[in-house]
Design a protein that fits this description.
single chain, two-stranded parallel sheet, 7 helices, binds fe (ii) ion, metal ion binding, ubiquinone biosynthesis, Ubq_synth_Coq7
Length: about 240
Amino acid sequence: MECLPALRRSALVQCRRSHRASSPIFLDFLAPTTLHAQRRYASTTGPTRSSKHPYVLSPKQREYLDGALRVNQAGELAATLIYTAQTPHIVRSHPHLRPLMKHMYDQEAGHLKTFNHLVAKHQIRPTAMYPVWEVAATFLGWSTAALGREAAMACTEAVETEIGSHYNDQVREILSWEADAERRGEELDDELKEMVATFRRIRDEELEHLDHAVAHDSKEAKPYDPLVDMIRLGCRTAIKISEKV
Ligand SMILES: [Fe+2]
Ligand SMILES: [Fe+2]
């Protein structure tokens, strides 16, 4: 878990580097999206390996993808921080859970690294709420772990339910673009196909975390319903805000 600060730093450093490398002036943060329409997801307008014409993303689709990647990066940051805050409490009272906590944390750290890379590559502004989510996620992890193992697992169940369905929506959206491309006799760029495969893999890993939480008595948390409902509402609110801000 000692690599977390490096992952967080790398999100911002990589983003700055990619902006500098491609911008004559460093104004990307303030510039309107349309200025970058030609550069962002540039490969989605490039040649594909097949003879079909490439499917060109509309400004609305690019905006959707920007928001999706911004939210995913923020969500994965939050996930790593929740596990970082929970693990010492949980492992102290339930040492047998150390491998499980480490396994879930390691997967979250891998997800964060993936989205740090994609956000930098596509020159997407990370959410301005980054510092707020850092504090909120750490508090959520710490407080649920303080309530006990079941509450910590209920937290995982709630977060993964929302995040899993969020990734599912993104997969469904990109697959609808693929269907649209097929109707037009066009083809999605390889990079976008790879992105949807990445979203699917990560969604499945999030749902695996949800299964682990339920298997480790998340439903026994007290009070289960208010706790889970509150965390799910918090997740949905954070997703909505991070899409735009
Ligand atoms: Fe994750
Ligand atoms: Fe997860």
